[in-house]
Design brief:
six-stranded parallel β-sheet, Catalase HpII,  Chain A, domain 1, binds CIS-heme D hydroxychlorin gamma-spirolactone 17R, 18S, alpha/beta, 19 helices, 716 residues, 14% strand
């Protein structure tokens, strides 16, 4: 479907929904929760019109009591989230590897509900925090709900679930003063990390631009753990799950992220909502890396270690299907807040491995929902209900919705003819993968988990120069916020294990020296740890680089949904606006008209141009690119508007494409025009002159002109 058609379909749907809402609520009286019609919802019951309120006022009491209980505990992690409905469709049957029903038939659409989240911040925190993003998908399959509860980073900080509460306590705001909000740049986080060499690989990812995505729609997703596919013959195959966004994988600049947090803390949430509302449905392909069981020990890392990934250079990702998110939730609380994911919600054909991080998660999620959603019946909340029929002998409990009929609530029974029956495997009954286990009980970590650095090095070496610089900048920022020199030193020691160049550059930004190796405390392993068991090693990785690890290697060119600000004022040239608008819209980009205030702009041709935002109510950081149409009168006016000049300066600083249909005008007021070499501006994504829509589109497709950061002197 073309974007215009999608937009019309979405507008029609919105209209129908509105009509339906009106129809549904026609003749609806305001009532109490008992159905009593309310005659006056404006005044409480009082002893005289100036008298005290009466306890007898059950209408007031009911309303206030319900209000008092409106909040439920927020998620301890991943509290801030945004979600959408959609569907998943497999490209071809995967029966060779798995019997999972939803992965068999390419003509079948499986409904999904997908929730994205930040990890550390509270529910009301900013979207643009530097953080890992959760990427949870609930597939409502005919065989029961399957949840793929992943992240936008393919590895994790720790190897064993027993360290999770420590990690989260360290990253959350510090307990004495609850500062800082939604940020890892503080003492306790880096203290913990500096003592946990196993987190080094994940830190490289978390300090990269992956942790400040441009959009939730432009992030990859990963299952993180190695899972198992099981086919009809009961043959198991290891599998790693990937989500690949069709819009490419993009981040923003750190300075921009911080400014977006102030200008629009809902930036990601709004972006997802608006895209779906406009009929520009985000899409991801589901990819799998398939690893035969026989190859389990072929790698120089352990498949059960969640601090490692399987390089795509070694095992390519096979794209097996597509997810489309095409419907916004009707109610945030009922759906996005009450949805309960669980990595243990699996279906026949998908099974676990012994990854000790995954094993711990299998306990945690039900436990947390019991508290968060108030009891054992949270599976009855509409968003959590499976579409597969559900029958069992579980009964009662807080907030039970189902009215179970009949005399029996046990199995086996004869009084109800044995119902509900157990399903045979041929009838779809679940059967755990019969993995052979013959072991001693130990509190140990396998020696194969000991190499904490070589994949961190692989990641760093696989980045482009710009990406490496961003990691150096991020580490310098975060460690610069740490007030304890020993913590900073320990971190420099760990970074030195990744790359001496990296450690030297961060050290120089901190005004410190990289510590001598021998001075390192066992690579940060604390004295009370048994070094035999914990001291990390570094082996040489079997490959030196994997281009798939770099964001800048993928997904360029597509400008669909990019937000382009048109800087306008009275007297703007009609053609200059219309032609560029048409060209951009043809590519699926979104045009926003900015003006001196919220009233329409009068074009040179005498038309009214609707203004989407006034300069004072918006900020450059929420747009992807800037265009200044021609029109002498408009340019004269805009030269007098400091915010319009600031838009271009800041857009330049953040390396965004800029086009101006005329040279003599607003652009002459900018810092970069006055101070930088104009010869290089075109290759730097600054396009000047009439009729340059194709050049501008090509520039937007490149996302950013990061080279400009080398001249990081723009005062914006
Ligand atoms: Fe989670 N995690 N987690 N986690 N996780 C939760 O469950 C936990 C881990 C992830 O959108 C909680 O319902 C433990 C890895 C996502 O609702 C909780 C461990 C990965 C979400 C929990 C981990 C994740 C959660 C909090 C270490 C990537 C949000 C609220 C063993 C593969 C789901 C809730 C949503 C949420 C526990 C580690 C992803 C407390 C104990 C690794 C995307 O149960």
């Amino acid at each position: 479907m073309k974007n215009e058609e999608k937009k019309n379909a979405s507008d029609n749907k919105k209209h129908q929904d509105l009509e339906r809402n009106r129809e549904d609520s026609k003749d609806q009286f305001l009532t109490t929760n008992q159905g009593l019609k309310i005659n006056d919802d404006q005044n409480s019951l009082k002893a005289g019109d100036r008298g005290a309120s009466l306890l007898e006022d059950f209408i007031l009491r009911e309303k206030i009591t319900h209000f008092d209980h409106e909040r439920i505990p927020e998620r301890i992690v991943h509290a801030r989230g945004s979600a959408a409905h959609g569907y998943f469709q497999v490209y071809e049957s995967m029966e060779k590897y798995t019997k999972a029903g939803f992965l068999q038939d390419p003509s079948k659409k499986t409904p999904v509900f997908t929730r994205f989240s930040t990890v550390a911040g509270f529910k009301g925190s900013t979207d643009l925090a530097r953080d890992v993003r959760g990427f949870s998908v609930k597939f409502y399959t005919e065989e029961g709900n399957y949840d793929l509860v992943g992240n936008n980073i393919p590895v994790f900080f720790i190897q064993d679930a027993i360290k999770f509460p420590d990690l989260i306590h360290a990253v959350k705001p510090e307990p004495h003063n609850e500062i800082p909000q939604a940020a890892s740049a503080h003492d306790t986080f880096w203290d913990f990390i500096s003592l946990m060499p196993e987190s080094t690989h994940m830190i490289m990812w978390a300090m990269s631009d992956r942790a400040i995505p441009r959009s939730l729609r432009m992030m990859e997703g990963f299952g993180v753990h190695t899972f198992r596919f099981v086919n009809k013959e009961n043959k198991g195959t290891f599998v790693k799950f990937h989500w690949k966004p069709l819009l490419g994988t993009h981040g923003v600049a750190w300075d921009e992220a911080q400014k977006i947090s102030g200008n629009d803390p809902d930036f990601h949430r709004r972006d997802l909502w608006n895209a779906i509302d406009n009929g520009q449905f985000p899409e991801w392909e589901l990819g799998v890396q398939i690893i035969p069981e026989e190859d389990e020990h072929k790698f120089d890392f352990d498949l059960l270690d969640a601090t490692k990934l399987v390089p795509e250079e070694l095992v390519p990702v096979k794209k097996i299907g597509k997810m489309v998110l095409n419907r916004n939730p009707d109610n945030f609380f009922a759906e996005t807040e009450q949805v309960a994911f669980h990595p243990g919600h699996i279906v026949p054909g998908i099974d676990f491995t012994n990854d000790p991080l995954l094993q711990g998660r299998l306990f945690s999620y039900t436990d947390t929902q019991l508290k968060r959603l108030g009891g054992p019946n949270f599976h009855e909340i509409p968003i959590n209900r499976p579409i597969a029929p559900m029958h069992n002998n579980q009964r009662d409990g807080h907030m039970r919705q189902e009215i179970n009929k009949g005399q029996t609530s046990y199995h086996p029974n004869s009084l109800r003819g044995g119902c509900p029956f157990q399903a045979k495997i041929a009838e779809g009954g679940f059967d755990s993968y019969p993995e052979k286990i013959d072991a001693k009980k130990v509190r140990e970590r396998s020696k194969s988990f000991k190499d904490h650095f070589s994949q961190a090095t692989l990641f760093f070496n696989s980045q482009t120069g710009v990406e490496q610089q961003h990691i150096i900048d991020a580490l310098s920022f975060e460690l610069g916020k740490v007030g304890v020199a020993q913590v900073q030193e320990r971190m420099l020691g760990l970074l030195n294990e990744v790359s001496n160049d990296l450690a030297q550059k961060v050290a120089s930004n901190l005004g410190m020296k990289v510590p001598e190796r021998k001075e390192q405390l066992n690579h940060g392993v604390p004295a009370d740890f048994d070094p035999e068991r914990y001291e990390p090693t570094k082996s040489s990785p079997s490959i030196e680089k994997d281009p798939a690890l770099s964001m800048m290697h993928k997904g360029f060119g597509n400008i669909a949904t990019r937000q382009v600000a048109f800087l306008c004022a009275d007297g703007v040239d009609d053609n200059s606006v219309d032609e560029m608008k048409k060209a951009l819209k043809n590519e699926g980009a979104m045009v926003k008209i900015l003006g001196p205030n919220s009233t329409d702009v009068k074009t040179a041709g005498g038309k009214s141009l609707k203004v989407d935002e006034a300069y004072r109510t918006t900020a450059s950081v929420v747009y992807d690119a800037f265009y200044v149409p021609s029109g002498d009168k408009a340019h004269k006016a805009m030269r007098m508007i400091p915010k319009a000049i600031h838009f271009l300066n800041e857009g330049y600083k953040h390396c965004k494409p800029i086009a101006s249909a005329q040279e003599n005008g607003l652009v002459e007021e900018t810092y970069f025009w006055k101070n930088l070499n104009k010869q290089n501006l075109a290759e730097d994504g600054v396009i000047i002159g009439k009729g340059k829509s194709s050049e501008f589109i090509e520039a937007i497709g490149k996302h950013r002109f990061w080279k400009r950061e080398e001249k990081d002197s723009i005062p914006a």
